[in-house]
Structures are given as C-alpha cells and as structure tokens.
Amino acid sequence: MCQRSSYQIFDRSPISAVTIKVKPSSSCSKNSSAMHFFPNYNCEQSLYDVNDFIIPATENSAVSITTRMIEVEHILRFCDHTTIRKHSNAYSSLNITSIYKCSEQQRCILPPLYRYEYENEKIIKKPQLCWFRLPKAVIKRNYRALNYIIFIKHFVEFTQLGLIRDNLIINKVKTRHIDTCEYDPENDPLCPKFRILKILEMIETNPRKYEAMFFYGSLIEIKINWKCNLDKRLEYCKPHYEFQRLDVQPYKDNPYDPGSNFLTSRYFFRPNESELHRVHTRIYNLHIIVSVTGEVGKFDLFQTTTSIGSFLGIFGTGTIVCDFIAAFFTNFKSLKYDI
C-alpha cells in the first residue's frame, strides 16, 4: 500500500527534442590509461578542423564523428573498344563483332550527370562508360576525436502531468560551471558536456578495443532517463545518463560490415580537362544516438481509493476461503451436539 504505484498516477510517454554540438577540447586528456593504446596520436597537433569530421552535419538526435576516411579517385572514360572474330557454322565465314571491355577494376554504370540524357535510350545506344580507379588511395585517421567534447541540450515534456524540464535548468544559476565542467559519473553527473575518451572508458572496459572502434567505427547510445516524483520538490527531478554500445561484438561475428560506416561520393572536373572525376569516400565513424526516456509519478485520489479498496477486499476474500474450507473439508459427522 505504501509503494508509489499504490497511490500515484504515472506518465511514461515523454516528448523530447535533442540538440547536439561538437567542439574540440581546449585541453588534452593525458592522464587516461587509454592513451597508451594510441601511440601515433599527438594531442598538441591538430591537422583537421572538427567541422570537417561531423558527417553528415545534421541528424535527428544523433551525431556522427568520423574516425577514419578512405578516399579513392576514379576517372570516367569509355571502355576499351576491341574487335574479336567469331566463326559462323552456317556460312563458314568470319564475322567481325565489336564488344566493349573494361581493362581495370571499375563499375560500368552511368554517373548521375549522364542518366537523364540517356535514360530513355536502349542499352545498345547508351555510351559504354566505366569508372577507372586510380591506384592511389588516401587514408586519414582522426585520433583528435578522442578529445572532442559533445554538448547535449535537450527538452522533455510529460503532457499527462504537465511537467516540462530540460537538462540546463539545474545549472542556470551556475553559467560559468557549464563553460568549464565535464561529465563525470561521480564528481559531476549533471554536466551536459561529454568527452569522447570518457565515453569510451564507460562503455568498454577493455582499452585494447579502442583502436578497433576507431578503425571500424562503432554505434553508441547515450540514454537520458528521467525518474521524477512530483510529490517532492521539483529540484530533485534530475536526468540520469547511461551509456552503452549497440554494434555487434566482436567484429568477426558481424555477418555484414562491422562497426559503423557509409559511402559517399563527389564529382568534379580538373582545370583544363574534360574527363569527369569522382572521389569515393568510405567514412568510418562513431555514430552516437541520444534517446530520452522517463517516468513521472504524482499523487492521485482515484488511484489511492482504488488501492485502499483492493486492500480491504483482501479481508473479504479471507472470509470466503474460510467458509469454503469449513463447508467442504471439515468432517461434520464427528461433531457431537448437545440437545
């Protein structure tokens, strides 16, 4: 009877909105033991801008931080035109047939710039164009992402009970604290700024897997959980952050591409050249998803009276059980009555 579910009504369907920003940290985390597993990383040298590694730039309640990029360039050219001779059984003569053959590793499909022009043409009339791959591939690694800071600002509303909260209300008085704080589950559990290295340490206990997460990418969830009792002061209604990995582990057990990655491409013409170039970029990233859940309870008279009625009904059930035992399980023949 004294439990919360006995006298409170609950709202477990929050409406939320999340905004995420990523910025480089002004200081390096050198005391972490995980830094020993990145020997090629020098925190003092920043080769790339952080905005170049947030791809795509806009997502709904998520952010993708690039950790590795592989760029391969292709050139659009006609396939090699060769002739072969076939022997005809009917006339015993040689027929000359023209075929198109691509000599390198390429994909014989029309690029977007040519699809509309030849869309309604027959296959024979379409130009036999191929993407010829250049031998050189450019590989970039973004170890600087270890010290990226994720700033999460979110709003949550429980419409049934009329509660509206956000994760900055508690710290509004301490504006300077938000500028300098950094999330720590023990020392500062309410700070909305998270260092990537700290997140890796919380979701993966084996530091040797950090390099694999940067190599293949990883899928990470940050869950913001609200559990509030509106019968108490509103300042006790605070968010709780949870972190977990969502990708298949280990990577060798994944039947598809392990980790998190996607492919994108861009097209361009070099100066004084008429050949179309294409750059295929395979992007491996830390795909971070933010989800918001919650439960809010408040005293309700109807719920309280229902619980009290159910509690009192237990005594009535006891009377029925006693009558049932007395009627069917008691041997009345052995009883003697005084007349």
What do you see in this structure?
The protein has about 350 residues and is α+β, with helices and mostly antiparallel strands. It has three domains: about 5-75 and about 140-300, atp-gated p2x4 ion channel fold (Sandwich); about 75-140, no CATH class; about 300-330. About 15% of the residues lie in helices and about 40% in strands. The protein is built from six helices and 13 strands. Strands 1, 3, 6, 10, 11, 12 and 13 form a seven-stranded mixed sheet that branches. Strands 2, 7, 8 and 9 form a four-stranded antiparallel sheet that branches. A hairpin with a 6-residue loop joins strand 12 and strand 13 (about 275-300). It is elongated. The two termini are about 50 Å apart. Residues about 80-100 and about 105 have low confidence and may be disordered.
Key traits:
339 residues; atp-gated p2x4 ion channel fold; seven-stranded mixed sheet; four-stranded antiparallel sheet; 17% helix
Count structural domains.
Answer: 3
CATH architecture of the largest domain: Sandwich
Average pLDDT across residues? 76
H-E string: HEEEEEHEEEHEHHEEEEH
**CATH fold topology of the largest domain:** atp-gated p2x4 ion channel fold
Q: Give the overall shape.
A: elongated
For CATH, the homologous superfamily of the largest domain is named as atp-gated p2x4 ion channel domain
Give the strand tally: 13
Helix content: 10-25%
CATH class identity of the largest domain:
Mainly Beta
Work out the helix count.
6
Low-confidence stretches: 81-101, 103-107
Major sheet summary line: 7 strands, mixed
Ends distance: 49 Å
Radius of gyration: 34 Å
**Helix/strand class:** alpha+beta
